[in-house]
Write a structure and sequence with these properties.
659 residues, alpha+beta, Helix Hairpins, D-amino Acid Aminotransferase, Chain A, domain 1, OB fold (Dihydrolipoamide Acetyltransferase, E2P), 6 domains, 7-stranded antiparallel beta sheet, 5-stranded mixed beta sheet, 21% strand
Length: 659
């Protein structure tokens, strides 16, 4: 065999394996789907041409080796990948004179559910196709997975765990720092589903869509795949949207699916065609990697050629500087685009980018702008040697074979702006109206240098009123918001510090464990932190590193002097009045009147030892709905499970009686 072809195949196996590891195991991307498919097809063509398949080739593997703290379990039947095509004509030829079920190929995380005696018994991720991770507790808090079904025999089915684009945007909007935001719904979904703490999964709002029935003990479907879909829906599962087709009707149905993409809130990366005749499909058998009863159709990405105008390097709160490609505007999938994230230095180098290059851009899943390839490949783009904001030297760091650019200057203005923006954000100290733009003006004027300075701005009232965009009313509003923000609790305070990896949910868990005492948190050892549910070694180390840093503690102590932290709640067991809702789980729906919003009511419940869940289940203690007689889905589910539906008034009266 040609040595050059052998070397190229080895290079492709290594590159694709690294990309698969990042995608399946670490929920991140080091190359675009477009680039992965192109390299995969190149490797496949070389294997067919030479008749050689190298050890570890991605064309022979499914998914990636599972490595995490979740329990592992082998699948009863291997979960194979699907062969794919981008040609409708190929689909028609594959189908021949048979009928098939055409459905979305959803872009999330595949999960296998097992029911016994009508109860959800087990949930396992796809993993590497042979061994998956057990996520039963997390699946129980998905928004729409039935915990109990009418069918009492053993049932095994497959489906996709999904994040809606709307929920993806909601979660990202709650993350102030750019480098902490999720790149796409699939990454967020994977990270949400594989959490060690189900509370995080629940808050993210994961959905489930069933797409295949593996087995149903004793059930007869008349040899019809479509009948299986109908039966799953009758059991209470949300089934992937589907339609029965022939080779003749297939092209029109594909066009209908494609036309629906702009309005589809769920991410998809194509369609799946599954033989309607179950026995015939099974008789086709499988290859080493693909079942022969189904095939995937991937959209032919709409691409446009354009010119790269510049690479914008955007600093963040943590010092990570993110590259963004700015190019001549082009029309893609019905909208004008001119920017695409390049994610990191490694991708800038792999694309060999340079200003003036002719590049090809597309929208991943017809939504997210990406660079498909660089036609010029000048390779002249270099990461800036100095931070574009503070002008101090930058540094390149390497982690998991990925190069990233950072500004190590602790006094970088953009770091200060984004740190202060996080500290005053809604889920932190909640100083309304204090935007990044306002923060930038206050820093530039020399009014704030440290956290505590935020609460000493009264001395600059007149000067603030004279600043551009301000006036007497605006200055008064700003100072009143800061005065209100002084009164807070430990959850908000800990979250506001911006400890790496500590989000709002982690801050809540720390608050509960240490009963609202920052002093107790500060003195906790890494070993004690590791014992807290949802806090592993990595987060424990990040917390201790922050608390052990003398500079951090000086800033934090100065800030604490300006705040009024709510007194720590008494630990459970020291009187029923301390945590009157301990052990109770509440679901809130509809509008509220005694609280500002449902989020405030949720915090009220959690502060008193209760749990606020997102969906009604057998574990729900009460459903709070001011319209107790409504026919909403939550009310119906509560009545079916015997869960009391109470109004806010009844909830507050219940608390009063328990005192």
């Amino acid at each position: 065999m040609d040595d050059k072809k052998t070397l190229r195949m080895k290079e492709l196996v290594r590159t694709l394996s690294e990309a698969s590891k990042a995608y399946y195991q670490e929920s991140r991307e080091i190359m675009s789907n477009f680039e992965y498919d192109r390299l995969y097809d190149e490797l496949l063509a070389l294997e067919e041409e030479t008749g050689t398949v190298l050890s570890g080739s991605p064309t022979q593997k499914v998914g990636y080796e599972v490595l995490s703290e979740l329990p592992k379990e082998a699948h009863e039947k291997p979960m194979l990948s699907l062969d794919k095509t981008k040609s409708v004509e190929d689909l028609q030829a594959w189908l021949g004179d048979q009928k098939a079920v055409l459905s979305w190929k959803l872009d999330g995380l595949t999960v296998v559910l097992t029911y016994r005696g009508g109860e959800l018994a087990k949930a396992v991720t796809r993993g590497n196709g042979l061994i998956g991770e057990v996520i039963t507790n997390n699946v129980r808090v998905f928004r729409n997975v039935p915990l109990r079904i009418p069918f009492k025999g053993e049932l095994v089915l497959r489906g996709e765990a999904l994040m809606r684009y709307s929920d993806f945007e909601r979660v990202n909007a709650s993350i102030p720092e750019a480098d902490a935001k999720y790149k796409n719904p699939r990454n967020l979904c994977s990270g949400s589903v594989r959490q060690l703490d189900p509370k995080v999964t629940e808050e993210r709002g994961v959905f489930f869509r069933a797409f295949a029935l593996v087995s149903a003990e004793g059930a007869d479907f008349g040899n019809s795949c479509a009948a299986q879909f109908d039966w799953m829906a009758a059991q209470g599962f949300d089934v992937v949207e589907h339609v029965t087709v022939t080779a003749e009707t297939l092209p029109e149905e594909v066009r209908k699916f494609e036309a629906a993409i702009p309005d589809n809130d769920f991410p998809s990366d194509g369609l799946v065609l599954l033989m309607e005749d179950i026995a015939y499909g099974q008789s086709l058998g499988t290859t080493a990697k693909f079942p022969r009863n189904a095939i995937a159709f991937k959209w032919t990405d709409e691409t446009r050629e354009t010119t790269l105008k510049e690479i914008e390097w955007s600093p963040s709160r943590t010092g990570l500087i993110n590259p963004v490609a700015i190019f001549e505007p082009v029309e893609l999938e019905g909208t004008t685009v001119s920017r695409a994230s390049v994610h990191n230095v490694s991708i800038v180098k792999s694309l060999k980018l340079g200003v003036g290059d002719r590049i090809v851009v597309y929208k991943a899943n017809m939504i997210i702008p990406q660079i498909a390839e660089n036609l010029t490949q000048s390779g002249t783009a270099e990461p800036p040697g100095v931070c574009p904001v503070c002008g101090q030297p930058t540094e390149i760091r390497q982690e998991n074979d990925v190069l990233t650019l950072h500004c190590p200057n602790p006094d970088c203005v953009i770091k200060k702006i984004k740190r202060f923006a996080l500290m005053t954000s809604r889920d932190a100290l909640n100083a309304e109206g204090l935007s990044e733009a306002t923060m930038e003006k206050l820093i530039a004027a020399g009014f704030i240098h440290e956290y505590a300075d935020l609460f000493d701005l009264e001395q600059y009232r007149e000067k603030i009123a004279e600043m551009e965009g301000f006036g007497e009313k605006s200055a008064d509003k700003l100072l009143k918001a800061l005065e209100k923000a002084r009164r807070t609790d430990m959850t908000r305070f800990v979250y506001s510090l911006g400890i790496p990896g500590i989000g709002l949910q982690n801050a809540k868990m720390l608050n509960r464990h240490f009963h609202g005492s920052f002093a107790a948190l500060r003195s906790a050892s890494a070993e004690e932190l590791c014992e807290i549910e949802g806090i592993g070694e990595v987060l424990a180390r990040a917390i201790r590193d922050y608390l052990d840093d003398a500079g951090n503690m000086r800033l934090t102590e100065d800030l604490l002097k300006k705040l009024e932290i709510e007194a720590p709640a008494a630990p459970a067991g020291e009187g029923a009045e301390a945590l009157p809702l301990a052990g109770k789980t509440f679901v809130i729906t509809g509008s509220v009147t005694h609280f500002k919003n449902r989020e405030e009511l949720k915090r009220f419940i959690e502060d008193r030892g209760g749990k606020a869940a997102g969906s009604v289940s057998a574990k729900t203690s009460y459903l709070i709905n001011n319209d107790t007689a409504s026919s909403s889905s939550k009310n119906k589910k509560a009545r079916e499970l015997g869960v009391p539906v109470i109004s806010e008034e009844e909830f507050l009266n219940m608390l009063e009686k328990d005192r």
